[in-house]
Each structure stands twice: as structure tokens, then as C-alpha cells.
Fold these 2 entries.
Entry 1:
Amino acid sequence: MMADWLTSPLSPEWLCALRDFCGQLGEWSHWQSHGFYLATRWGVLWFLPVIPLVWAFEFLAPRRWWLVFLSILSLAFIAFGLMPWPIDGVFPEQVAHHGGQAMTWARRAVYGLLHAAIVVLLLVGVYRLARTGQQRCRQPGRNPWHPLVAAVLVLIAGYFVLYGIRSGWRRLGEGAYGLDAFVILPNFHEAGLAYVFVKSVHYVWDSCRGRIQNRSWWRFLCWMTFFPSFRVGPIERYHDFFTQVHRCHRRWRASDLLHGWRRIVQGALKGVLCLFLGNQWLPAVGDQLADTVATGGASSVPYLTVWVLPWMVLMTAYLALAGYTDIAVGLARLMGYRMAENFNWMFFSHNLSELWRRTHMTMSRCLRDYCYYPLVRRGPFRRRPAPGGSAGQQVGHLLLPTVNFYITFVFCGLWHAPVSKMILWGLLFGTGMAVFELWVWFWQQRVDHNGLLYRGLARAGLAGGGWPQRVLGVLLTIHFLALSVLLFHGPELFFVVTRELIHRPFTWLF
Amino acid sequence: MDVSTAVICELLRAVTEKDIHEEDVISESRYLEDLGLTSIQLVDLVMAIEERFNVEIEDVDLAKLRTVGQTVDYLKQKT
């Protein structure tokens, strides 16, 4: 009887969601090839031949020209990446617009330079905003938080408006006039706008708080456009970046070269693996699922396939980002810089809080420092001391600050892409974090640690940090993450997969 | 006021309302991982520290205060 759930027929909702999912696979596999795509076109493998030039300049040129040189090199990288590229099928629309290879390289180069110029204009705006914000914060009699909040709101509005302009322009160009839309306005998403936005918030915030003193334009431009990390991070903080720049100038070691090469190879392998998952394995699974859909459930999809599906989605997303991070860190290391890491054994996190300390770390630290902490300390749902001066460990005192988890993760979702499904993703993660916070509070405050229940669980290793508790925590955490990533591909898929995963094992019971 | 591990331990007891013994708290004890604080309790602790030592801790500095020892060093610099 227990084995029935493994072969039980699929529900109609499940079949519909799978059909839609299979329909998306063609387009999706292009997206999943990003790991390799990033490593080649945007990544920096193309820039490997430039490294000897960087070394030569570093040794031969005066030190004051170093930041200018790095900035110009990075802008060349941006122009190179933003050129129209009708070659890899990632943007088949471009091929249609330009008639395949009809566009000359000279024209592409002009467009690339034009797009790089637009990026520089945006950066000029951020730089001016930081200066204005700092001046206003210093004005006597003014609350220093008001200009800061206003400046950050301007950045947030600018970020979403740029996304809107791009998509609106795209529709206009494709539908009404057939304009050369893709080459007139840069694809801000491709240009790493999301990362530029986070760095901008960091720069403006720290400038307004007086934490950035030396704010010369070339320092700002060099840090903002540093080519290994421009497109997909890691997000290096301003001070950390210049600590590296000053410490590493004209100091290379063989270990740096070896480590750099190792990371680049490692990243490229992750990209290839991602490409394999996206273009070979996923379509194969998709064909199998499509057969099931076509036959209307006569042959059921094994439970194992349902279980593996979220894992595949998670692994491809992880490999794409981790692969690029490896390449970026490796390339910077070839130049002597040690950049911040993005991942630290995330699959072994034993709770959601730890997961966010190990996953996409540079981004999650920025979210924590510039969104969560300010909200929970100063926002409308801030942590308030209870009457009488104690911090307040009643559940009522804890519920209000958990709203900040929702705000933080909804913002995080919208940062990935300003679409409604990402709001759902943020709400899901906000709920997860709030539940975790209350769960810890419950076991700390409401359970008698000398009672029979706690002592029994502790003896079994399920309380007090025993290894069974940790293993269970790891499994729950990573499954939560894997399922939540399905929301990136639509809520229907998430709901049916979650339902099938939970419901099917109990079909023998109900 | 003297900044020491004992004072931090006292504040930890106040914010968590748990019986945390001084011998269990060492300089390398991490708030989130070793002492089991949640992120909200960490904010409680920071507020308690600010009030006790009359200092303002910037949000971005919270990342530097991962352990009891780091907190003590940070406060010694500030006060």
C-alpha cells in the first residue's frame, strides 16, 4: 500500500502546470545557459589576454593613472558586453531585427560605445546624488536621515523606471514601429543594472552618513565599473575595494596566479555543467513530462522526478551565479585583488537565517545592512522596548518586527525582477523567516528546558543542537529554498509541485 | 563604564531572558551561531548596548559585531 503513492496518477492541475512548464522549457533552456554565456560573452574570459597589459601598466605607469586606466578598461568591457550580439540565440529578437549577421562590427562597436556612455551618464547621476545628499545631511538643523531616505527613494524609483522604460521601449519597437529597439537603448538588465543599483545605494548611504571621505570621481567610477564584478557581482564595498587596490598595487605572488587560474577554470566548469543541465537534461525531462501530459496521465511521472524538478531549477540557478562569481574572483585574483565571496557551502545551512548568511553573501549583507537593520531599528515596524524597559519577549512584541522580514524579502524579490511572482517569492521567504524567528523564540522562552519533552528530544538529538536536529534542519532548509525557486518560473508550478510532494506520500492514507 | 565580557553577558541575559552563565560566554562566542540569538534579539542587544554605554552604533557596523570579543573591542574604540 505504501508503494502506491509512487505510481499514483497525477491530478489534472498538476498535468496542466507541467504542460505549461514544458512549453516554457525551450525558452527557459536559453536562460539556463547563462552560466556559460556569462563566462564567455560577458565574462571575462575574453579579457584574459588583457591581463598582461594590466600588469605592464601597473608596473610602468605612474600610480596616479592607475584608477583612470582601470576605469577606461572597465568601460571598454561594458561597451564590449553591450554591443548587439546576434550570435548566441540568447536574444533571437536581435537576430530578427538585424537580419542575422547583417550588422557590421563597426556599427555594433558604435552602439556598444553609445550604451557605455549611457551607463556613465547614469553613474554621473548617482555621483551627483551622493554629493547633494551629503551636503544636505550636513546642513545644521536638518534631520540627517531625511535627505538620506529621499536619495535612496530616488535611486529605487530610478531603478524601477529604467526597467519600465526598457520593457516599454521594447514593446513599442517590436509591435508598433519595428524600430531597432534593442540597439537604441541598452538592455539595463544585461548591463548589470541590478548590481549598479545596490552599489549606488551603498555609496549614497555611506556618503550621507559621512563614512566615505575620499569621493573623487575616478575612484567612484573605478569601483563602480570594475570589470570582473560589474555584470553579476560580487558586490564589493567601497572601502574594501580600495583597501585591496592599495594593498595589492605592484605586489603579485605566484599563489595569486595559481589561485586565480584555478577559480577561473572552476567557474568555467560550473558554467559548462549549467549549460548541460539547461540544454540537455532539462529538455529530456521536459520530453518525458510532455509525453505524460499528452497521454493524459496514463503513464504517471515518478515521484522521484517531481522531487528532482525543484533541485534541477535550484542547481542551474546556483551554477550560473556561482560559476560567474568564480570567474570574477579568479580574474580579480590574477590582478592581485581578493574579492568577497558569494557562497559558503549554502547547501549545508541548517536554518533559513544561516542560509542567508551563506547564499549570495555580498547581496544578502547589503540587504541586511541597508534594508533589514534600518527597518527593524528605525522603521515603522521597528523593535520597540516593552513597557518597563525590558526588551519584551512576549509574542505580541515579536510579531510587529517580523513585518520587516516581509518588506525586506519582497524588496529582494523585486530587485531580482519587478514582476508579481517575485512579490509572492518575497512573501514566502518573509513567512519562512518570521516562522523561524517565532520558532526559536518558542523553544527558548516557552519550553521548559528541564521538562520531560525537552529532555526527551535532547536525548534523541532533536533539540539542543544535536546532529539529528541539524540534519533535519539542513533538509528542511534546502527543500524550502528549492521549492521557493520554482516561483521564479510562475506560481502555478510552485503550488502544484509543493502539493504533489506533500500530498502524494499520503494518498495511501486519505 | 568598563567594557567587558561580563557586561555583555549581563545584557545578553536581559535581552534573551535566559539564564546565560558567564563561563559559557567567551570572547569568541558568536551571537547567532553559538549563543543562539535570533536577528531580532541581536537588535535588542544592540539597543541595550547603545543605552548602557551611551553610544550610537551604525547599522552597517552591526556586521562587525559578530562575536562578544568583537563587540568589546568595538565599544572600547567608541568609548
Entry 2:
Amino acid sequence: MRKLILFIMTSVILTTFFGCNDFMEFPPAATFNRDSVFAKYTNVQKLVYDMYSYCVPLNFDTRSTGSDGTRMAGGSFASAITDEGQSFHIQPNYKVQNYYVGNVSADQCASWSSTNKGEDDYLRKWKTIRKAYVLLENVDKTPDATTAQKERIKAESKLMIATVYFEMFKRYGGVPILKGSFTGSESQEDINLPRASLEETYNFIINLLDDVIKNYDGILPANYTDQQDEFGRFPMALAYALKARVMLYAASPLYNTDSPYSNELGQNSNLICFMKYDKERWKKAADAATDAINYCLNNGYAVVDDPTQRENAMNYTVANINYPAKGNTEVIWGIPQSTGGNNWGMYLMVRTFSGTASGYACNLVPINQIERWEIDDDKTPGQYKNWDAQQSFVTSVSPSETNATKAKLLVAAAARKAYEEPKLDPRFYASVIYNGDNNYGKWSSTGEVDMADAYLDNGTIISSLNGTLSEAKYRTTILHYVRKFHRGFEGNESAMRPLNIYFRMAELYLIRAEALNEYESSPSKQVHDDLNFIRTRSGMCNVKSNADQSEMREIIAHERNIEMYYEDQRWFDLRRTLKSAEKIPVQIYKIQIRKWYHTSSDKWPYKITYDKVPYQKRYWSNSWYMNPFPKSEINKFYGLIQNPGW
Amino acid sequence: MKLIRPQWEASLIYLYSIALFLGLSLFSPQQLYAQKGKNATGTVVDSQGEPIIGVNVSVKGDKSMGTVTDINGHFVLKINDKSIVVFSFIGFRNKEVPAASLINATVKLEENTQTLQEVVVVGYGSQKKETMTGAISQIKGSDMLKSPVANMGQALTGRAAGVTTYQQSGEPGADDVTIRIRGTGTLNSASPLVLVDGVEREFSQIDPSEIESMSVLKDAASTAVFGIRGANGVIIITTKKGVEGPAKVSFSANFAMQQPIRMPNSADAVTIAKMYNEAKYNDDPTQNPSFSADDIALYANGKDPLGHPNINWKEYMMKPASFQQKYNLNVSGGTKNTKYYTSIAFFGQGGLMKDFSNKVEKLAYSTNYDYKRVNIRSNVDVSLTPTTTIGIQLGGIIANKVSPPDVFGSIIQAAPLGGPFIYEHKLVALPNIPWGGSPLATLFTSQDDMTSNTINTNISFNQKLDFLTKGLLLRGLGSYDSFYSHTLIKTQPQNYYRLQNGYDADGNSVNVLEQAWEAGVIPTPTESWSRSQQMHAELALEYKRSFGDHNIGGLILGTLDKKWWMYNGSSSITQYVTVPVSYEGVVGRATYDYKMRYLAEFNVGYNGSENFAKGKRFAWFPAVSLGWNLAEENFMKGIVSSDILSKLKLRASYGLTGNDNTAGRRFMYLSGEYTSGGGSMFGSSTQTSLGGFIEGKQGNENVTWETAEKQNYGIDLGLFKNRLAVTFEYFFDDRKDILATRATEPGHLAISGQDVYNIGRVKNHGYEIDAKWNDQIGKFSYYVASNYSFARNKIVEDGSIKDPANPQLWTTGHAVGTKWGFLFNGFYNTTDELKQGPVYGNPSIGDARFTDVNGDGKITTDDQVPLGYPEIPEVNYGFSFGGSYKGFDFSCMFQGAANSTKYLTGIFRSPFATNGGMPSFIVDERWTPENAENAKRPKLTLAYTSNSYVESSLWKRDGAYLKLRNVEIAYTISAKKMQELLKVPSMGSMRIFLNGQNLYCWDKLKFVDPEAKTGGFEYPQLRIYNLGFQVNF
């Protein structure tokens, strides 16, 4: 009996305390998982919206609303690495400055964190690709979505995969090819994919684009004229346009070659080039550009060209700033910015801080580039203003003039002559802020930008009279700022809703001109027509009519530099054409702007001078022809082969 | 279970407990006055002079006449002159004393070395110390009372071998210490499990007077019963219980002054101005200095206090000391059937900040810190029948904490020449210095006023089941705890004024104050509250019986735990807050000894955690331990006299425990949850941000607990009639299956929030030595005690990347928390040195040079090496001594730590970088061409663009220290004298004491306390001078 009671009591304790499994808690049964998402079309749409967040590297990075809203740390665009741009010099830790001195590590270049924003964010690419595959693989499950809705999302996902792969192709060459999304339960071998060859990667992209073009016509909207709220999602036109861009890159010397730019990879060199030159690639690029132009023209796109707005380059500005709803028929795809224009403006003009940190800019224009806008006075192509000799302009204002407004206007008018006599390509005035500029309301009450330091004839500086934006006052030495992306909003950037453009139609004409020029033995009419079409809408004369193939190659490269100025093209253009080693490690010049006074009691200067002064010698390493994979990724030792030199 | 309970209802519980407390205080069947007739009186103490509670005092041959000593060791017994009084207490030799000599006598009992029967609290029970085979340290509540600190955790410091405490903030009401038992054994949370009266509870705010003892469980034998929660060690706190005897009332009061320990000094305005100019010159010699000679003169002569202030922010904002008070009133006693201990305590701690509420135009609240706490406790045990007892334990804490935003970081970062400061009741900001830069502005922004109440209730029963089988006992425990806090956040924007240069009517330059910021309306205070409740239940069958020389014991016990959260503010868990946390488990124990000479014990815990998938939840954690009291062996007695070797015990334990503490993460097996977020911007005519869904972690169904395999070897030694007691422990822990992420997964896997795997492994080993000598010379008795502990861990695997070319970068093989950085190798003093290279970045003269560790001719991140020890010290030691002579007694405790590396960060590394301030010690340490020889840091800079300031051995400092933690001097006035003095016959003794905490520190860091943060800075630790008395009735 006692034993029985004991047994019962022991059993009670044991069963009470670990017999009852239900005592343990379980998470809410209705966990919102993938099945829940794909149960409703409105949920699926949210996945689509998220797929677009940070999907491709652009000048501005929409993930950040803070003070470093650009892709590269320190507020610069990739253009500032090249000879078309310059970053403020005092902050040597800024990523672009590291390129100037040749101190770029693989991690700095290819990874992104709050403190380290490299040229690319390699890992982010794969996240976007995963989002696209998850949509592609699951959208058919959505019960309340129509077939058209499902098919459109599939098309967008495929186009997204192609776009992101192209962004990797252009930076890294061949990369691992994913055919679907991982579940995490795959074996280590299945996960540890090697890099595919450049050719396989290229074929993968083209197959995807062809798939979209061929199978989703009428499903993926051609444009968003009728669905303005959805502007920012992919139109079919992007599939055509991107195909032309991918093919132009594939035809370019960096990739389309028998031997790579570096032999370091040996057997694995097919990761970074085709290993076989094929002239037909140029033809394919030209044909793809023609297809894209025709598709665009047939579907509501056109290069912005109001004949009355050519001489003031407003066509050019509309194409670069405006949304389609405001007359920009040229933009094929771009991402509206989530932040106001303040950040947009911040990196393009003088950053005004109080106290010791005042006044520096992240995207400046060196004299080297100023000299590249053609003279437009006599409508002869290929004429350039030479800044080598000192420029001097008399102000024609009495040193004791008491009417300040009048005097300022006269001084500014004298200052502007450096840029306006002779008159330059209208696109210059749309692209650059310069001394004496009278379009900038923010910095002085009369609107004239004063970048000059005040000097007495004996060479001493009068610090009290230095210009509001002068070198001595603001510690910035390059002095020309980028206007292009906020023209008309100077000093009023907060009113802007900037548009980050990924592809605009003018580029298609430049692609076709370049591809045809390379394919044909001498420049055909089509090459001239395409270039002149782009120039005419900005009030420029035609290009030289009798240029041979190699001359024309220079003209086209120049035209891309001017037309696509600061549009995140030049860094990659110089690489794919193997011109970086020639164009990037050059002497960069700054401009020294001085206004001169006879005596220190003078109120107004009698003349203004401009001197071109050597500023900085740039650096180039052939390893920079391709981006590095993040070192942390290589160091996982799953077999990812690093690009040469990193 | 109703989850939401409004605050008033929680208050009802509080009122109920107050009522219970009062009721019990009156409920005293014993007379409060002394018995009639002649009385024997006195105090019973042990060999160290410590009073012994609960000693049986009886007249020889007359068992009816007897009493027990109270909590102060006092006794009063009615006798006649010829009686012999017998004192008996387990663990001590009986002592017989003629009654005639017992007038206010001190009776010293000698420990019984043969059957030393000190009882130690262990997991789910208690054991005689003699039969213990695991590694357990026990601290007496009376020891902890010697530290006049606010927080129980701080009282632990230095008192037990194997326990590390680390205190970074002294903020009233928020001064918890980090506690580690035997160091760090895991990559995840290494915090021990803390139980109060058998239930997992917060212990830091319990009144020290309520505490009977604290047990620290360290090895597998003692922690296996806690299963998946035991691997980090366990602390068990037991509150006091009543003992049979007349009602004893004890009142104590403490008054203390608190001083901050080592607030770093800021350089004065002149120095800052000069240093700033120097830094600017270092960055670019062509720049004009920011401060002219005139400026510097004005800072020096103080003639322009408005434009050129020189404010010592520390003195400007802080009081030199603040006041602390503590009162405790407790009543205890009981009959054979009912025993009670009740206590009420008040604790009040003022803050170190000055109150500026009347000094500016608008400020409706005090700017000082304040903390008030009331603790109540009522522990009652009632015997219902000779075989049945029930116990009710009730503890309550009501606290109110008022605090401004953490301002101490701002104080040390602020420049003496910055603002805003107060001028004629106005807050004056200086141009170009951000308003947020002054600690005053920080202080004024808001005030948090948090009231919290905690109710802990235990109800337990014991039923002897001798009728079933002798030695059998059924016991149970149920508990209900409730915590509620309510926070009111008050904010008040301020009017700001700015100094502007202007001209008066005569054209003279004057300074005018121009309003720069209008405060606007005072916003409504915001409120938040949080609430948690928990229940615990356990039921056990216990068996203890001797068969001749064979003693056996057994335990089977089941536990259930559940905790709920309700909150609208913050919560300690971050995931699935609405889902309660539950545990269930079963515990088993079997003990056997033969003549208490050969000991064996087997413990097992079987419990589970819902954090893991079904089938991965429950596990067995067994442990086996053995002991051998070698000194009891006859052959030993033949070798060495038992007068010399009184005790020699060998112990060993081996077993498994677990850890499911995953730092707030729950249900890690769940996969693929989506949450709102992400999205992008769309629209042509208008732009709209369209939100998205973000894929969550993928989950891992195989995730399970960490397992610790623990070995412990111990020797207990008693020498010279146990005057010297030495314990030595050696342990080795191997923690496997630690949850960690796999850093080696390829980036293209792209599964967001990649999940954890049981891949980590950490080994931890160390030793502890505990030695105590006590003796008596005439009437002077004294003791000297010391403890030393060492614990070193090593990561075996943590899922990190291992670069085959650079093994010096691997985290494996190093301790958890080790930092990596460059090896500093002097400063560049000449251009030649710069040219010799290799260099890192763009250094110039006066910058730091680093070693090319891998010798590849370049200095890159691959040249980083592990720099030192983790911050939490590997070595901890304490030593103390004390004694008593007649009514006087004193004690003194030192505590130290070593093998700790601190890194200068924040303001201590980069002056000017935040709010323009600069601690003064940097002035002497900086590199200048003149000071190149003695420089301890690179030349000053404003830009921080050279690599001198990256993590390197240059910034590492030795965190070792030795502190005079505690000194106490006391005088006890005997009950007799008190009665004579006060003419109150029921008066008991009174003890007056003066004690101090954190009195002195020897260390190498100098500018801040070695436990404080060396980057940001929090409320300083406190030095406390305390005067108090305790009087008994």
C-alpha cells in the first residue's frame, strides 16, 4: 500500500511537470510568412515595391536620408574619381580621395556600411536578386491576382535580375549565376557557387532580356503615361534600352578582347573577358540600339527637343531633372527620390557649415573639364577655350562707387566674361556654377556668386573683402560647382523632388553612334545623324563632317562626356574603352580667381584675373579596371576568385 | 489569468501586504518584556566573535526552561543561582556554564570540528557543508550589511571567490553591476541565474537587512538541477526567517555622504584655446588660429565672462557630495508553532546634480537625480500539525526614481569655453557652438519620473510523510510575482539667448543678449508603463534517512514557470512580447555517504525551453560528484595530528548544464516571417513612398540549447584546530553548441537575417583559493581572510572567418571580448622615419607608427593583432581582516582585479571631436616636437584623418586595480548598559558603527575609475561615508 502511494505520488510529480507538453508556449499561430504574403495580391505588390529599394547603384543612394546620401562616402559621385570631377580636398578619408592617392582597399570599394560606402554594395545585389526570384517563383500562387498581374510581376522580376546582373557584369565581370532562390537547407556544395565566366554571365543577361522582350509584350507596360503613380517601376522600354547598353559594354575593348587587361588570373581569365575579340558584337549593339530607339519612338518616348529651348539648353535640363509628367519624354527609367532636394543640392554645391568646418563641396568641376565644353560662338565644331594664359577682365567700376547694387552687377558682369566670352556650349551653362554667376540667389543679396579673393596690387590679401565663396574664405579650391541636377532650384533645393535617372533616351543615340563607328570602316551618315541630333537639341553645331574612324571615336567619347556629364557614366566609359590609364592619372588644375584693388580703402576692385594653377596629380591602377569583390567575401574561402590586383 | 491590471489594483496588493506586515508585527504570542526572577543574560558568539542565532540555551536537567538566541545572539533566561546553563547549536560543541557568571556575558562556542554542520543552501534544498561535494560559496547577510551601498549586487563585490562584479554606473536606482560567475563561458549572455527564495527574481533592490545568506553555485554538481538555465552559474538568495523566542525588535538607521569617484578633469578655457589652435595648426599650418592672443588673454583674465567664459562644468553642475539615508525596522520571533520575521525599510539616495529649477526662466522640475525605495518583508512559518508546516513569504519594493537625461557624458565632453550657460537667469548660447553641446542644455531637456512596485509572494508547505516511510517529506511551493512601473517623461524647451556684438548710443561696442530661440508651450508629459507577472510552482518528494553509518537522501521535484509581459513602453524581451515565457522541468537528486567520510551525489535536471522546435526542447543534464573526508581516516590521523590537520576533504564533480539565454531572441526555429518595411518611391506627377514587406530570418529548426560540460576539483583544508581554513577549487568548462551565426556563408546566399546554428564552442578554466585564519588572543579575537580567483576562456569556434594567410586575425584561440588592432611602435619624429615606411594611410610627423606584423612591406588591416585581455577582469581577489575587543569591533576589506584591458575611446581618445571638450590629462600626453620623448598619444588634430586614431595598442590601458572597498568600526553598548542608561528594562544592545565604501583605489588608469567606461562616461561610482546605529528592544 505504502509503495503504491509512493508510486502514485512520484508519478503525479513526473507527469505534472513534464508530461504536459502544452504548458510550453508557442508563437502566435498566424505568423505572417511567405504563404501569407502570397495569399493576397496587395501583399505581393508590397514585395514588388520593396524589390525596387536600392536595387541598382545610382548617384544618390535612396537608403540614406542623412548627411551622406550618395553612393560613395563623403557625398561624392563616382564621376568625381575621374577627370570630369573633383571632391573637396580637406577630407582625405572620403572614398573618392582614396582613389586620388591610390589607397583603395577591396572592402572600401565593394561594401557598404554606415561608415564605409564604397563604389558598390556587392551584397546588396544578391538581396535584390533574391527578392526578384522569390516573386518569380511564388507569384503564381496568388489566388486573387489576374494572369496579367502575375505575368507583369514575372516580367519585372526577370528584368530586375537582368539589370542587377548587368550592374555586376560591368563592375566584376563573371559572377555566380543563380537560377533560383536559396532555402538555406541546400548542401554546402550547392551554396558555394563559383564565378561563371564573363560570357556565361553575358548570355544569362541577354537571355533574360530576350525572354522579357519576346514573351511579355503588352504585359509589361511600355511606359507609365497612363499610370503615372507607378512611374518608377520598369517599363518594357528598359528591357530594349538595357539590351543595347549591355551589348555596347560587351563589345567594348575591356571585355571584347583576346587577352585580358591583366594576366593575373591565368586559366581563369575568362572571368573578366570573352578571351576572343568578335567585331560582330558592335553590330549587335548597334542593332539593339536601333530596336530600342524604334520601340521608344513607337511607344511615346522622345528626346526632349523644343526648338525654342535649344539655345538656353532647357531641353537638356528638362531631360535631366523633370519627371515625365513635367514633359520629360526622354527618361526611360529612374527612381524618384525619397528625400527632399536639400540633400540632392548639398553634394552639388558648397556645403555651408558654421565655424571651422565651413564650406566644402563633394562634387566640383576642375578646369580640365571646363576646357572641354566647346566654343559655340562661330558654330565650328572642335574649338576650345584655352585657360593656360592668365585671363584678366576690367570691372569698369570706380573704386569708390557708392551704389553697391550697381557696382556689384558691374563686377559680376566682368567676372562672367571668363566664361561667356567666347560663348560656350549651352550645356556648359546648364551644368556648372561659376564666378559671377547671376543665377544663384542663395549666397548674396544680388544673386551674384563671388568666388574671388581680394588682393592689393602689392600681392597682399585683404581678407575682409574676400568673396563669399572665395578660396581663402571657404577653404575650397576648385571653385566650380555642378549645377546640372538642380538648375532652376539653386539655393531652393528643398522645393525639388529629385529624380535619379538610370536611363534616358539620348544615350541610345550615343550607343548606336559609337557601335556603328566601331563596326564600320569609316563613320556613316547614321553616326553623324545620331550625334548631331543630340547636339542640335542643345543648340550646338554639327560635329566635324570629315572625321575618320579614330577621330570620330574621340568625338563620340567627348560627346558622351558632355551630354552625360556627371551622370555616372564616365568612370565606366573610361574603363570599358581602356582609356582610364590615359585619362585619369593626369594633372588636375584649379582656378585661382583674384579681384584686384589699388589701395585698401577701395570699395571695389578694378580688375578680375583667372589663373590656371596645377592642383593635384591623380592616380590610376590597372587593377581598377574591375571592381574588387569585398575582401570579407573572398575571405570566406568558398572559392570566389578575386579580380586581378586586389 | 487576467493580464491587464490597472495600477490601483497593484496598489491594493501593496496595501494588503502592508496590512499583513502590521498584523504580524502585533501578532506576537510571546511576552515583549523579560521574564520575572533572576535572569541570565548574554551574547553567544562563534570563534570569530560573530553572534550566533538560534542557539539553544537551557538549564541543565530542566528542559522546560529554555530559550534560543535572537538574531543578535542575545539571550535572556530565567534561572536560579545554582543552575548550570547548557548552550547547544548544531555544528558547535555544547558548552556548560554556571548560571552565576551569566550576567551580560559573552559566551563563545567552539566549532565542532568533527561534525561541522554549517548548512549551505543549494539548488532546491540545503545541505550540511560537511557533505557538500560541489563548488558553492556562501556569503552571510551580515557581511553584506557592512557595505553601505544602495545595490545588493555591489555588496557582493570581493566577498566570494569565483564571483566577478563590474560596475560602470553609480546612478541612483540604475547602478546594477555586471556579475559573472567563473568568468565568461559563452558567446551569448553569460549572466548567472538569480533566485530569491527559490524563484527567479531581481535581487539588486532588496534591502540587505532582509537577507540571511547568498549562495553562489558554480559547478555542474550544484547547477545541473537547473538544466538549461544553469550553465552560467546560479546565485541563490535566502531571506531571513523568524526563530523561536520572544519578539525581538531591531531598528537601524544609516546616514551617509556620497562623493563621486574620479570625474575626469577638463582642461580650462585657456588651455583648450591653445590646444585647439595647436590642433588646427597640426592639420594645416597655413590656417589662421581660431583663438587670437586677445581671446586667450580674455579667457585667462576672466574679464569677459559672457563672451569668453571659463566654466568648470563639473563644479558648475555638480554638488561635491550628496546624502543617503537608510532605515530598517524589523520584528522577529515566534513560538514553537509560529515563527515570523517582518521588516520595513526605507532607502533614500540623492543625486550629485545641482538643482537649476529656480535658476533659469523656465524649468518646472528639479534637475537632480533622486531615488527612494521602500522595502517590506513578511516571512511567516506556521506548524499546523507536528508534521505539517506552511510558510508565507511576502516581499515588496516600491521605488521612485527621478532622473534627468544621462548628463555625465556631456559634462566631460563639454568645453569650458562653450555654452549655453546661465547669465542673469537666461540661457546664453555662444555663436558657432551647438546648443546641444553644453551639459546644461542636456540636463534641461527632460526628466524621467519612474515609479515602480514589485510584489513577490511565496506560499510553501512541508508535509512529513514518516507514516509512509521514515524520512519522507512532501513539499511544495507556489509563487506569484508582479512588477509594474509607470514613467512620466517631462520635457521643457528653453528660451535661448545669443550674445551679439552691438553698439550703444555713443557708438561704443557692447555685447547684447538677443533671444535666439523661443521655448514655446510646455508639452504634455508623456507616459509609459510596463508590467510583468510571473508564477512559479514546484512540488517535491524528499527522502533522508540513515541506516547505521549509511546516510542516504533523495529528491524528486517538478517545476513550472510562466512569465507574462504587458507594456506600452520598453520591455526586456524584444520578440513576441505578447507570448509568455514558460519553463517546465523535473529535478532529481540522490545522495549517499558513509560515516560522512565517503560522499557521493548524483544530480539531474530535465527541463525544456520553448525557444526551440518541438523535439528539440527538453534535455537531461546529469552530474555526478564524489567527496572523501580524508582527515577522518585513521591512517591520516597516524600521519599527522588532528590538532594540525583538522580537516582534509577532496571533492570532484563532473556533469552537464545548459544555457538557453539567447539575448532576447525567441522561437529561432520559426522560418520566413515577413514584416512591414522597405519599399520605394514611385510616381510621376506626385511622388509617394510605397511601403513593402521585408523577408525575415529563415529560421533553423535544429537550433537548440548550449551545453556546458563542467569539471570541478576541490580541496577543503582545516589546519591548526580549524583556525586556518583553506579551500582550493580548479575547474574546467567546455561549452559546446553555442548559438552563433556562420560568417562564412557566401554573400550570394542572400537569405536575410541569416540565422543561428549551434556551432560555437568556448572553453573556460580557472581556479579559486579561499583562505581564512581566525584566532583569539586574550579578549581580542580577529580574523584574516582572502580569496583569489582566476578564470580564462578561449573561443574554440564562433563561426567566424579564418583567413589562412593571417591566423593572427582569427578570433578563435582568444578570449571572448578580445579586441584587435595595430601594434603601436612609437611616433614619427622625423621625415626620415616617414620615408622609411611602410606607413598606414597618410601619416605625418607626430603621428603613430604601426608594426608591419606579417612583414609584407605594407601596413594593412591584416597587420592587426589581438591587443590584450577582455575588459572584464580574469583575476579577482579580495582580502579582509577584522577583529573585536570588548565592545569594539572593526573590519576592513580590500578587493582587486587584474588581467583587464581598457581602451580609450570617445573623448578620451579624440578630444574636440564631441562638443569641443578635452580632458586635462591629454595635454601632458600629447605629442609635440618638445615632448616627443614622453608622448603617450599622437599630435592633436581636429580632422582625425590620419590613422593614428584607429584601434591600436597605443590606446590600450591596464585595467588592473586594488581598491579599499570597505572599512567598518563599531562599538556595541551592551543591553545592560543600555538599560542603565535609558532606564528602560526591555532595552537591548545598541551597536554604533562608522563604515565606508570605495575608499581608495590603486590603479594605472588614474583619470577615471578602472571600472568606469573609458569612452562615454556615466554617473560616477560613489565613495560612501556612513554613520549608523542599530538598536534592539
